[in-house]
Amino acid sequence: MLKKCMRDPSLIIPTENIGIKDSLSYEEIPAQILDRQVRKLRTKEVASVKVLWRNKFVEEATWEAEEDMKKRYPHLFESGKNADQGTNSLLSTL
């Protein structure tokens, strides 16, 4: 049988201190570029990069437009490493 709960005001946590967004969402942060490919369409070529996201497995990496990724995350492209070298270093750590 259920009993009546007695409220204790000292146990209430104010939500202002927690820092939760109203939408309960967060931004995924890319960790590494794994691969690069160029797809040829009829009138243009589209460059894509395979992105490994933080807290995700290699199998869950996604293909994103290279131009968009360079605009949003330029630090991923500054290292001067080739995408194949990045893949090899990632596989050697596994």
TrEMBL record:
<protein>
    <recommendedName>
        <fullName>Chromo domain-containing protein</fullName>
    </recommendedName>
</protein>
<dbReference type="InterPro" id="IPR016197">
    <property type="entry name" value="Chromo-like_dom_sf"/>
</dbReference>
<dbReference type="InterPro" id="IPR023780">
    <property type="entry name" value="Chromo_domain"/>
</dbReference>
<feature type="domain" description="Chromo">
    <location>
        <begin position="31"/>
        <end position="78"/>
    </location>
</feature>
<dbReference type="Pfam" id="PF00385">
    <property type="entry name" value="Chromo"/>
</dbReference>
